[in-house]
């Protein structure tokens, strides 16, 4: 009977340091991720856009179509 009580007590006492170690590692990881300096990336801005303003070109087409109908 007393052997079972001792085993259970030792098992619980062995789990406490493991639990504390896990909590410490989580805290350390969270602090490291918030204190790291995020270096800004160098972004090159192109002066020529790779896309075309569709609404602008559509308006131009409508204007030219209207002018073509008038002739």
TrEMBL record:
Keyword Transmembrane helix in annotation: yes
Protein name: Phosphatidylglycerol--prolipoprotein diacylglyceryl transferase
GO MF, one annotated term: transferase activity
Keywords: Membrane, Transferase, Transmembrane, Transmembrane helix
Membrane-spanning residues: 6-25
């Amino acid at each position: 009977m007393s052997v079972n009580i001792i085993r259970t007590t030792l098992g619980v006492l062995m789990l406490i340091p493991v639990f504390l170690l896990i909590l410490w590692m989580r805290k350390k990881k969270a602090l490291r991720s918030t204190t790291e300096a995020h270096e800004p990336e160098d972004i090159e801005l192109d002066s020529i856009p790779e896309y075309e303003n569709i609404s602008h070109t559509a308006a131009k087409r409508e204007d030219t179509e209207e002018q073509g109908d008038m002739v």
